Amino acid sequence: MDVDYIVVGAGIAGLTSAYELAQQGSVWVLSKSSPANITTTWAKGGIASVMSPVDSVALHREDTLIAGGGRCDPDKVDILVREGPARIQDLVAMGVDFDRESGQGSAYHLGREAAHQRRRILHVGDQTGHNVHKAMYRAVSQHNRVTMVDQATVVELLCESGPNNKTRCYGCVVYIAGCRQHVYAKSIVLATGGAAHMYAQTSAPEGCYGDGIGLAHRAGAKIRDMAFVQFHPTLLYGTNFLVSEVVRGEGARLRDLSGDFIMDGVHPDRDLAPRDIVSRAVAKTLRAGSSHSWLDMTLCSVPIARRFPALHAYCIANGFNPCSQLPVVPAAHYTMGGVQVNENGETTISQLYAVGEVANTGVHGANRLASNSLLEGLVFGYRAARHIRTNGIESNAVSSQDTKWPERLPEASGLDFKIKAIRKLINESVGIIRTRSELIQARDTVQQWQSQGNFKDSIQAWSVNMMLTVGMHMIDDSLAQTNNCGSFYSTEFKSPE
Ligand SMILES: Cc1cc2nc3c(=O)[nH]c(=O)nc-3n(C[C@H](O)[C@H](O)[C@H](O)COP(=O)(O)OP(=O)(O)OC[C@H]3O[C@@H](n4cnc5c(N)ncnc54)[C@H](O)[C@@H]3O)c2cc1C
């Protein structure tokens, strides 16, 4: 099958690229998960962007750089904050109806989140991701040059040596409902999301194993900063439901089991300190023996049912009182590391781009500023597509190749136990607080598992292999760190707090 462009992933980043690319040629959007089960749809709090006269791109830039712990790429941050408002207008044009202060035509209602000096979080109730995705999916799938393909798992990027001895990517191998297909294209955009589901305790949907990072690594692309994983401090205990930070923006505060405020004396911004600092403070109370901490909702200054209807409904349906103390724990939430790209989403392989959470643009440094990731998907998804449109190759001559992949591949092969074991290992060894000895032990275990597997007899087996590849990157990059910075914290280095 020949198309002009392949986009792997149908989250905010992939849909942004697909929409732009469709203005120029045919696009296949491949997605292994249904829209209900991707991270974009699960996003709650909103999208950070400068929309108010009391805010400025300089302040948004400053907040992003500070949260990133000195490891952001300032030029990329500049692009993010400057181009953000235009991309928000694109969403509005697609039909996203962000909440306003008091009805049609009034100013946007802007939420507040940790480490933002101003209110700048655009939202649609507390189900922003769901509403944004719905509008984007409709706009993209209605385009006559776009083919949306679900149940489509990409298992290999097809590459060969290109001009100047640089590797070029000319297509991919994908299983669509278990049947193999080779798809060839002039450019391939990876938009496969992050790897937070590598952890047993996570806010991310199933399947977020960092496939794109594994695929790109196998193809020879550079992977960067995999030591940096963001943990969100408030996953509702015993569930996979995230209590958004906007709740703390409206006054809720974290208490330990004795009732003391956890963030008092830790950081001047207390519960609205950068996420890495809050998560670490909570993790320290848990290491002292608590099963969870409390989020005191009685301090919220807004009516909870009205401002956070999804949270309210979930709590009521699951036996929690949303207006009282909610039990919460930190959970793996976001992957700062990923496939190394430049300001146009170009990877180190020709014709291969990466956008969204799978990519490492450098905008998040060692700790992402809350609500900057949907924005990143929009800004860099758009830039990558624009770059392809103006610089992409004219035609994609493919010398047909024998494939080593079978024509049909079953979905599962009884490896649930292995996936569980990997997630437990990563949770325990590559968590909020790491030790060198645990990391070394984890590396040995992953190496041993890698040497044992036949990873080609099912999609699940392939997935296990990808998880081991991604896990190894997390461990190796953690072992390579020389100091504590942002979300990376090891007991052997000096504490930043
Ligand atoms: C609970 C939760 C709440 C969040 N809230 C916010 C928020 O309020 N604001 C904010 O800015 N960020 C938030 N985030 C982070 C943000 O949602 C994500 O970073 C962002 O949605 C990632 O978008 P994406 O397009 O890169 O990937 P995703 O939305 O994760 O989409 C990835 C796509 O790739 C596909 N895919 C993966 N592997 C393969 C493969 N091998 N073959 C084919 N397809 C594949 C998937 O099926 C999917 O279609 C939140 C995250 C979580 C978990």
CATH class of the largest domain: Alpha Beta
Q: Report how far apart the termini are.
A: 55 Å
Mean pLDDT: 95
What sort of overall outline do the alpha carbons produce when their principal axes are compared? Answer: globular
Report the sheet with the most strands, covering strand number, pairing sense and barrel closure: 5 strands, parallel
CATH superfamily of the largest domain: FAD/NAD(P)-binding domain
- The percent range for helix content is 25-40%
Q: Please, how many domains?
A: 3
**Biggest sheet: strands side by side, in what order?**
5-2-1-9-16
Number of helices: 14
| CATH architecture name of the largest domain | 3-Layer(bba) Sandwich
Radius of gyration: 22 Å
Count of extended strands: 17
Describe the structure.
The chain is α/β, with parallel strands linked by helices. It folds into three domains: about 1-230 and about 335-410, FAD/NAD(P)-binding domain, CATH 3.50.50; about 235-330, Succinate dehydrogenase/fumarate reductase flavoprotein, catalytic domain (Flavocytochrome C3, Chain A, domain 1, Alpha-Beta Complex), CATH 3.90.700; about 415-480, no CATH class. The chain is about 35% helix and about 15% strand. Helix 3 packs across helix 4 (about 75-95) and helix 6 (about 210-220) packs across helix 14. It starts with a strand and ends in a 17-residue tail after the last helix. The model has no long low-confidence stretch (mean pLDDT about 95). Flavin-adenine dinucleotide binds near residues 47 and 204. Flavin-adenine dinucleotide (FAD) binds near residues 46, 193 and 333.
